[in-house]
Structures are given as structure tokens and as C-alpha cells.
Write a structure and sequence with these properties.
2 domains; 8-stranded mixed beta sheet; TIM Barrel; 16 helices
Length: about 525
């Protein structure tokens, strides 16, 4: 499939990819563009977007039915917005594909009924490409999979120019529909591509398919090329912006690490906490090189064939702890599937060398999953106790095929279980990222699974795209939701919890008590 983004000649249709955006902002943008289109100042345009959680009320008041109060919805960070589109109550959230055509129906030779039928046909063809057979139901705009609704349509036309549009459930959290009676129709079950097929799809690819279908159904696809634009506004919400690092301690940390030739996960993974942690004189060292044997799409660490372990690294690590006067050291590594012990003996040697020179040093190990050698690795590391044993579960199991190549959810749980079983009186720890498209139900199950294998500590943080080739952020989770998950984790029995947008696996790891 030819990339839509490669087609840049000026023709009568423009696509604007708004990314993940607030509904109120996009509603205002639609209204502005509709007016410009009425004045013939812009070409036909389609806004494509995923919305932060929102419930919208349509023009048909009798069809606007909520099952929760606005206060309760606000507590759950779900906005409620009145709109003038057709239909009744519906809901939007990340993982749902929404598109708003700003078209002149008179110029296209369409009336409203024909326009809605075209939207439905586009949705049917798109869903067919994603493995779902959808159909119309007479008298009920939208699309259905048997008796379950998968897509909603609500449009408005003023002086022949359209706005509002269509929403198709791809892989969004369907629990948001529990708070409404969709379109005022009782006993409607909502569904999605994910629910029907069990498969996730990169949203940029879904958008590509949608763009081509819009061209095919509204224009002559052989003579038409669209303009594609991306929303130029900053996608980072205000709570994820930080000042650039500076200060004497920060620069001292940089100099020590550089002079000793030590790698840090802070640099290799483009961690957003680097400045803050280095200002505090702490860093998470990355041993065994900076080349990984796997290619996880959430990570920016380089993949390839790594070099053999450096026998001088333990001594250099010990020297770093003296120069920085550290009392707590977090050690992590890339995946080393090329080594028969996964790198466990090098972890052990680093700890023992540092401990020989700094007997009071406390340690935290953040290990890979030791694929094919877990029992062996656990035995080797027993010669370096005590330490906090950490291994990151990273994300929910349904996202492993997309985000964590070569990983296995049950294997990771098993490693934490083995550590807890074999190491007397140690704390085990894990970490999970939010914002990749996971649902609340999936997050809660991961927390339960971690507690079931005896995991004591948990960090929950926002996924941020670390490099151009990494996975896109599906949703920026607001701080209040992280507070919710913190409380949930405490209630489940975790003894140490940090849950915030900037939380990472080793963030404030040296603090003994975070409850």
C-alpha cells in the first residue's frame, strides 16, 4: 500500500491527522473549518482523530441518556460535551477511530441520505479489511455486527457543508459505554474490532486504509491525490513538560559517567527523568553494553549483535559509586540472549566488586527475563544477595506481540515467582507502562497477577515515545488516574508503590517507603 503521507500534490481533499486530542478543541476546529469551507476558502477536508475520554450529547434530546452523574464522570476523567450533531448520546476514547469530513455535498452531488450511506459503506469496507463483517440496520444509522453496535454516525449539515461524522470502535476500552444508553437505544451491546477478532491494529495503518476508502468513495481514485497534514499543536499535555536539566550535581554526574565510560539506561532509553535523577546524584547503570538482542517497539535501545561482557566493568562501576558517593545502586542490562546465563554472572560480579569496596551499598537489580536459563540465573545471583530483585512486566499480555518482541508474559511472571521462592526475605519489584492502548480491566488483572506471584513493589508510569521508530502513544493518562491506580495497588497489598506520569522502574528506587 502506498503511503498516503507520500502523496503531497495539491488536490481538492485534505486529511488532517489530529492524533490524540480533546473533543472540545476538535469541535471548535470543525466549526472554524466548516465556516471556511462555506466561504470556499479551503478544500474538502477530513479531520481524523482519537479522543481523550468523552461522552457527547446529540441534538435529539430524547436520545441523550446517561447512567451516571456528570460529577461521577468527572471523577473518572470523562468529559461530557453537548454537541449539535444528529443522534443521541455516544462516547469516544483512545483506540476508537473518529473522522469528521468537512465536505460540500452540493459540489459532490449528494443529499444527506446518500452521504450517510457513503459513510456506512466506507465503514463496512474498512471493517472488512480488519476482519469484521459489519452491516446496516434499517432506520438506525451506524454499523452493526449482528445485534452489537460497532460504529456510530452523527452528522450535521449547514448550507450544504458537513461536519461531525463517524466513530468506529477499533480497540478502545468499551467500558466507557457502560455510563450511557448509546443513541438512546436500550439494551444495546457495543463491540469493537479487538473484541470481535482478538487482534490489535496499528492506528496509523487503520488511518491509511480509511484515507484510501474516502478517496475511492467520494472521488475518482485514479486522478486524485490528497494533501496530508499533521496537527502542529504540541501533543504533550502540560503535566508532561519539564525544564531542561542544569546544576552542579547534574554536570558532576555527567562527568563521572563519561570519564569512566559507563552506560546508563537514562541515556540509552531517553528517560524523561534523567535531569531530575542526575540532579539528585543518582543514575541507573546499564551493564553488558548498549546493544540488545531483541527489538521491543516501546524501547529506543539499539538492537544487534552485542560484544562480549567487559571484565573491567565491575571495577569501573565500583569507582563510580565512590566518586558519586552513592548509597543505593540500581543495575540493569539489555537482553543478552546470546549468553548461556543471560548475563547473570556479570550482574553478580558487578555487585560483589562494588560491595567489596563499599560494604554498606544497597542494590536493586532490574534484570531481563533470562529466557531459557531462568533457574540457572536465579542460582548464580544468589551469590550476590541481598538486593531488591526487579523485572518489568512492561505492559498487558494482549500488547506483548506489538510492544515486546521475544517477551512472554507468563515467563516474566515466572521469573518473579522464582526469585521470591529462592531468595529469603527479599523484595521483588515490577513496572508497567500506561498509554499503549490497554484497558482498565487489563491493568487490574496485571496487578493481580503480580501479587499472585508475590511481587512486593510496583511502579506505574506513562509510556512516552522514546524514538522515531518506537510505538505511538495511544493516550496520555492524567495524573488523577495514576492516583487511582496507586490507591488500587495499595489496596491489593503492594508494600511500595509509585504511580505517576513520570514514574519509571528505578524512579526514586532508593526510597524505603512510598506508601
Amino acid at each position: 500500500m502506498k503511503s498516503i503521507a507520500e502523496k503531497t500534490k495539491s488536490y481538492p481533499l485534505s486529511f488532517i491527522d489530529c492524533g490524540l486530542s480533546n473533543y472540545r478543541e476538535i469541535l471548535q476546529l470543525q466549526q472554524e473549518m466548516q465556516e471556511k469551507k462555506r466561504q470556499n476558502e479551503i478544500p474538502d477536508t477530513v479531520l481524523i482523530v482519537e479522543h481523550t475520554p468523552v461522552i457527547t450529547l446529540g441534538a435529539r434530546q430524547s436520545a441523550n441518556k446517561l447512567k451516571a452523574s456528570c460529577d461521577e464522570l468527572a471523577e473518572r476523567n470523562i468529559d461530557v460535551v453537548e454537541s449539535r450533531r444528529g443522534g443521541g448520546t455516544t462516547a469516544h476514547n483512545p483506540g476508537q477511530l473518529v473522522f469528521y469530513p468537512i465536505l460540500n455535498l452540493k459540489q459532490l452531488g449528494l443529499d444527506i441520505s446518500a452521504y450517510i450511506r457513503k459513510l456506512e459503506e466506507i465503514g463496512i469496507k474498512l471493517l472488512e479489511q480488519l476482519g469484521v463483517s459489519a452491516e446496516r440496520q434499517k432506520g438506525f444509522p451506524g454499523l452493526w455486527v449482528k445485534n452489537k453496535k460497532i460504529a456510530s454516525i452523527g452528522v450535521r449539515v449547514s448550507k450544504f457543508v458537513t461536519y461531525h461524522g463517524m466513530a468506529i470502535n477499533i480497540q478502545n476500552d468499551l467500558s466507557i459505554f457502560d455510563f450511557i444508553i448509546p443513541c438512546g437505544m436500550e439494551n444495546i451491546e457495543m463491540t469493537s474490532v479487538l473484541k470481535e477478532t482478538g487482534k490489535r491494529h496499528p492506528m496509523n495503518q487503520v488511518k491509511e486504509k480509511l484515507n484510501e476508502l474516502l478517496i475511492k468513495h467520494f472521488y475518482n481514485e485514479h486522478t486524485f491525490q490528497p494533501i496530508v497534514r499533521h496537527n502542529t499543536k504540541s501533543k504533550l499535555p502540560p503535566w508532561l513538560r519539564r525544564p531542561l536539566p542544569a546544576g552542579e550535581t547534574f554536570h558532576h554526574t555527567v562527568q563521572v559517567l563519561s570519564s569512566l565510560g559507563l552506560e546508563t539506561i537514562c541515556n540509552s532509553a531517553n528517560c524523561p527523568n534523567r535531569g531530575q535523577c542526575w540532579e539528585r546524584g543518582t543514575a541507573t547503570v546499564l551493564i553488558l553494553g548498549n546493544i540488545c538482542t531483541r527489538n521491543c517497539k516501546f524501547c529506543s535501545v539499539a538492537v544487534g549483535k552485542p560484544a562480549l561482557p567487559d571484565p573491567t566493568e565491575p571495577a569501573r562501576l565500583a569507582e563510580m559509586t565512590k566518586q558519586m558517593d552513592l548509597k543505593y545502586l540500581v543495575i540493569t542490562s539489555v537482553n543478552r540472549d546470546d549468553l548461556p546465563d543471560g548475563g547473570a554472572s556479570h550482574f553478580r560480579d558487578c555487585i560483589n566488586e562494588v560491595r567489596q569496596q563499599r560494604p554498606d551499598m544497597k542494590f536493586e537489580l532490574l534484570t531481563p527475563d533470562f529466557r531459557n536459563c531462568q533457574a540457572k540465573a536465579i542460582k548464580i545471583l544468589s551469590d550476590a544477595l541481598p538486593f531488591v530483585f526487579a523485572h518489568n512486566i512492561e505492559t498487558v499480555p494482549s500488547l506483548y506481540p506489538i510492544a515486546r518482541a521475544g517477551g512472554d508474559y507468563q515467563r516474566s511472571l515466572n521469573l518473579l515467582k522464582l526469585a521470591k521462592k529462592n531468595y529469603d526475605k527479599i523484595q521483588t519489584k515490577s513496572s508497567i507502562m500506561l498509554g499503549l492502548g490497554e484497558t482498565d480491566t487489563e491493568i487490574e488483572q496485571v496487578l493481580k497477577d503480580l501479587r499472585n506471584v508475590g511481587c512486593d513493589r510496583i511502579t506505574i508510569g506513562q509510556y512516552l515515545k522514546p524514538s522515531k521508530g518506537s510505538l505511538e502513544v495511544i493516550q496520555y493518562i492524567p495524573p488523577a488516574k495514576f492516583d487511582f491506580w496507586r490507591q488500587k495497588a495499595i489496596e491489593m497489598g503492594f508494600s511500595w508503590v509509585i504511580s505517576s506520569p513520570f514514574a519509571r522502574s528505578s524512579y526514586f528506587a532508593e526510597q524505603e517507603n512510598l506508601l
